[in-house]
Amino acid sequence: MVEHFTTIIIGGGQSGLSISYFLKQAGLDHVIFEKADQPASAWRNRWDSFTLVTPNWMLQLPGAEYQGDHPEAFLDREEVIAYFESYIQHEHLPIRYGIQVSSVEKAQNMFQVKTSQGEFTADNVVIAVGFYQQSKIPSFSQNCSPDIYQIHSEQYRNPGMIPEGAVLVVGSAQSGSQIAEELNEHGREVYLSVSEAGRFPRRYRGEDADVWMERMGYFERTVDQLPPGQARFAASAHGTGKNGGHTINMHQFTRDGINLVGRIRDIQNSLVTIEPGLHDCLRKADQFEEEFVQEVDRYIEENHLSAPEETLPHLDDGFRVEELTELRLDEAGISSIIWATGYTYDFSWVRCSVLDDDGLPVNDWGVTPCPGLYFIGMPFLHSGKSGLIYGCAEDTAHIAKAIVKNSEIMMDAVSRR
Question: Class for domain 3-133+345-416, per CATH?
Fold first, then answer.
């Protein structure tokens, strides 16, 4: 007999757990299908020294808002895992592990959900797998010399796992910049392929950058306030919470001995072709930071706040780096490449005619044109909080209300028959 639920939640990450909390509060039966075999799988797949880049006060899962003594500190990898494990246990959330969903279809006013453990049906389905689903590596990586050890940043754990020799890290957003910094600190020769990621100061005028962003309404910006296109999927700005948090600056990296190069265009055996534009990327990061601190200064002045004056250090070391157009891995002694090139998505298994030409779900704050089908946990699903632990409660409370309303409509339709 096929098991039926009022709601099936696909994905047991922060968004899936959060909406389960609200459905439980509403008394609606539901289940979470999580493909991993244990909680917090996304966080377990981080490197050993990983920390959150957002401070503890932004830990805002519903019912588990941060109440500790260190709101400006940053949880490390093990603490993040423990946070999620405790949440599931304390709230008694109905999660089933090791279930891979292969398709979702709607037929006869209910959803058919096919999984690795059989078929299930539901009145509502919440897709909570997020946006960063599959690691992304350029196809030309296959042309690289077989002597080069290659991994995605998702597979990186610590410097000790990387073979002897210099390391090329491709991508300088959050993961790439932090991994490059750690390798350099452990005495490894590092080449870093710089992208157009911006830079925030970790702290400015007495407060963490996230405090200023919260006060200035960054997290309340809605998707309709963004520039046209896929601005909501832009690479994350440089940042780290390691050792209490500090600013990541490519110019400082140059001072520290990291070799900066531009974006990788192609690889053929041991020859890496590099796009021109390294200095342009550095200028964009500098401009990003400058515009941010100017906005903070204006906010302080306009709101008559008392905040210490501060002038950030002006570094320009990266501009003195020669812009290479080619790099020979063998001549540079590079034995490994770490691809910190982000992730991609695939919603093709959701067969409900709700995907646009880019394969993204058409939705209004997670509610799709297909009654009973919802998406959650994506960047700027509604606001700048969406996709962050900080924004889970707001987004999932909204979806939970929609599910309750849809369930009431269905119950009313049945009673009228």
Answer: alpha beta
CA dihedral of residues 324, 249, 132, 225 (deg, nearest 10): -110
pLDDT tens by residue, 280-327: 999 999 999 999 999 999 999 999 999 999 999 999 999 999 999 999
Bridge partners (DSSP) listed for residue 51? 76
Within 10 angstroms of residue 213's Cβ, the number of other Cβ atoms is: 20
pTM summary value: 0.93
- The residues near 46 (Cβ < 8 Å, ≥ 6 apart) are 77
> Is the pLDDT assigned to residue 48 strictly greater than 70?
yes
3-state SS of the chain is CCEEEEEEEECCCHHHHHHHHHHHHHCCCEEEEECCCCCCHHHHCCCCCCECCCCHHHCCCCCCCCCCCCCCCCCEHHHHHHHHHHHHHHHCCCEEECCCEEEEEEECCEEEEEECCEEEEEEEEEECCCCCCEECCCHHHHHECCCCEEEEHHHCCCHHHCCCCEEEEECCCHHHHHHHHHHHHCCCCEEEECCCCCECCCEECCEEHHHHHHHCCHHHCEHHHCCCCCHHHCCCCECCCHHHCCCCCHHHHHHCCCEEECCEEEEEECEEEECCCHHHHHHHHHHHHHHHHHHHHHHHHHCCCCCCCCCCCCCCHHHHCCCCCEEEHHHHCEEEEEECCCEECCCCCEECCCECCCCCECCECCECCCCCEEECCCCCCCECCCCCHHHHHHHHHHHHHHHHHHHHHHHHHHHHC
Summarised one tens digit per residue, pLDDT across range 235-274 is: 678 889 999 999 999 999 999 999 999 999 999 999 999 9
Please name which of 104, 99, 97, 102 lies closest in space to residue 40, comparing C-alpha atoms.
97
Query: What CA–CA distance (Å, rounded) separates 404 from 163?
Result: 54
Share of the chain above pLDDT 70, in %: 95
CA distance readout (Å), 409 to 53, 98, 239, 364, 414 = 42, 33, 46, 19, 9
The angle at the Cα of 383, spanning 379 to 386, to the nearest 5 degrees, equals 40
Q: How far is the C-alpha of 192 from the C-alpha of 168, rounded, in Å? A: 6
- Please state the domain extents for the chain: 3-133+345-416, 138-339
pLDDT score, position 234? 60
What are the residues facing 190 on neighbouring strands? 167
